[in-house]
Design goal:
- The chain is an alpha/beta fold.
- It has a single domain, classed as NAD(P)-binding Rossmann-like Domain (Rossmann fold).
- The longest helix is centred in the middle third of the chain and has 27 residues.
- The N and C termini lie far apart (38 Å).
- The relative contact order is 0.14.
């Protein structure tokens, strides 16, 4: 079904690569006008150019999601250009692993929290007032499977993503209580083949190596579907939450993890 978000204006943070790029491209394909923000000033414009080449409408704005003054500027620019905001996808995030929580530096803890949690808070703080002017909308906060269950090597990351999960539920209840027509949900990807895995050293996974993690090999061992997910598969879930097809969905968690949360599947016959 084409045009699922036709006419809607969507903001996607962290939209220059990986899941964010896939979301921006799919929302555009489905008729949305997309604002892509990121700290990556090289790949961000490339995403917008690719969307334009495909016949879509998009704009790139440089943004550090931890900067409150920049949030004022970004939402002001969206209002000036489009006059509205219908879909907010708070996707920007980082992952910092540590073999043990006692080995994690306070600087790394604070940096991860600033981007993964403070950045999400600011996205809602400044995006919600603009969305309320139209009387409807969808806020989609990118959490993780790590926000639903613990990991011995990702304590800091899990803390931020668990915080995002409950923040989404609380904001959903606030919006419902005032009847502003805005729905709020969280998305929880599992092992997804994106560039983030190349930025998490395997030493952070307690195996004593510093090489990047092989997410496909990890997924074959850890997921019942025996493969890593693709960014486009997460984007499909975001599209559902952004569209009117999910008009009765708020305060919920959309888990897209190849079955990891459900349990452990027995080995397949060779």
């Amino acid at each position: 079904m084409a045009g699922q978000v036709a006419g809607k204006v969507a903001l996607v943070t962290g939209g220059a690569s990986g899941i964010g790029r896939a979301i921006a491209e799919l929302l555009s394909e489905e008729g949305g006008r997309v604002v892509v923000t990121d700290v990556d000033e090289l790949r961000g414009p490339e995403v917008v150019a690719a969307i334009a080449k495909a016949g879509g409408e998009a704009v790139f704005l440089h943004q550090d999601v931890t900067s409150e003054p920049r949030w004022t500027e970004v939402t002001g620019e969206i209002e000036r250009r489009f006059g509205r905001l219908d879909v907010l996808v708070a996707n920007a995030g980082i992952g910092i692993g540590a073999a043990s929580v006692v080995d994690m530096s306070l600087a790394d803890w604070r940096r991860q929290t600033a981007i993964n949690l403070d950045g999400v808070f600011l996205s809602v703080k400044y995006g919600l007032p603009l969305m309320r002017k139209t009387g409807a909308g969808s806020i989609i906060l990118m959490s993780s499977l790590a926000g639903l269950r613990g990991s011995p090597t990702l304590a800091g990351y899990s803390a931020t993503k668990g915080g995002v999960r409950l923040f989404a539920k609380s904001v959903a209840m606030e919006c419902a209580s005032v009847g502003d027509g805005i729905r709020v949900n969280s998305v929880h990807p599992g092992i997804i083949d994106t560039p983030i895995w190349g930025k998490i050293p395997a030493g952070g996974m307690a195996n004593g190596q510093n090489a990047p993690i092989d997410c496909e090999a990890l997924a074959q061992l850890a997921t019942p579907l025996r493969r890593a997910g693709q960014a486009r598969e997460i984007a499909q879930g975001v599209l559902y939450l952004a569209s009117d097809a999910s008009s009765y969905v708020t305060g919920s968690e959309l888990v897209i993890d190849g079955g990891m949360l459900a349990g452990t599947a027995p080995p397949r016959p060779s």
